[in-house]
Design a protein that fits this description.
Aspartate Aminotransferase, domain 1; 2 domains; 13 strands; binds pyridoxal-5'-phosphate
Length: 351
Amino acid sequence: MIELRSDTFTLPTRKMMDAIQEAVLGDDVYGEDPTASKLEEEVARILGKEAAILMPSGTMANLASIMAHCPRGSKVLVGDESDIYIYEAAGASVCGGIMYEPIPTQPDGRLAISDLERAFPLEPEDPQFALPSLICLENTHNRMGGRVLPLSYLEEVRMFADGKGVPVHMDGARLFNAAVALGVEASEIAGYADSVQFCLSKGLSAPIGSIVAGTNEFIEKVYRLRKMLGGGMRQVGIIAAPGLIALQQMVDRLAVDHSNALRLAEGLAEIPGIVTHVEDVETNIVYFRIEHPKLTWQTFIQEARKHGLCIAELGHGRIRAVTHSGIQASDIDRALEIVRKLMADHDEQSV
Ligand SMILES: *Cc1c(COP(=O)(O)O)cnc(C)c1O
């Protein structure tokens, strides 16, 4: 099966499994798991932040970060196509008493400064208004095709946020894809945000975990919230050990995923009945639509699966394909063959 539904299907490498076997362990709720501490120190260094903390998931990493930044009764500005707004079960409002204000997401994943500006009341002293206490950005942007936020834009948001006196949190689930695509260090991107989270469990191919990084004071708050949310784990070196391998060995190879995604998009663009925008493919995510008189995306997905290609819809009837360490260029060629044949078969039927 060619698995293109998500880069979360990546399996731990042999080296990761060996590292799990050999990990030095302790009770991390007591702060005594040396492998977890090592990973957290390493990430703080890589991202140029004072401290970092290992979390069970990206969802909990975002939730604890938002709760650490935002007082109850304030509002968090999030993209209306962001993972935080769409896929995280409204955690900040349920657990934190924080209101989400959805900001229109531009096709390249940016939130326009003018739209952010509108979320700030003209008379902040007026007790009727909930005040914005955080801006969240997503980089790379999943539902906007894995687009990378330009550094010039990050600088604009930084200046805007500083002017308003609110912090910026970056949901960098795929932060290292952004860094590899731009050819910069991840710390350069993270430098524009007060806090950042990234997933070890996606393209980096570790089995579990996300990490939040920020100031010492902020990470102290996240540490308490992690415990409150049920994310305090014990011999967590089991998770941290493959995480260390992920950072050492799986970052540079993301470039391969990016070139495979481009290969896929270029191939798809040539198949009649498939609509995709090759120029939008910057990282490991490709979106496309089926535009065919007889074939719906539902049928396309079902039939592709029968032929050995696993793929899924992700918003607005678009199909998303995600490349990752389990996919080679030859798998992309095979996937394209499957799609070509499937479309051709339906063309014959509709004649
Ligand atoms: C996957 C993802 C998350 C959530 O991570 P989980 O580990 O699945 O909870 C958050 N934000 C973005 C952009 C993601 O792609």
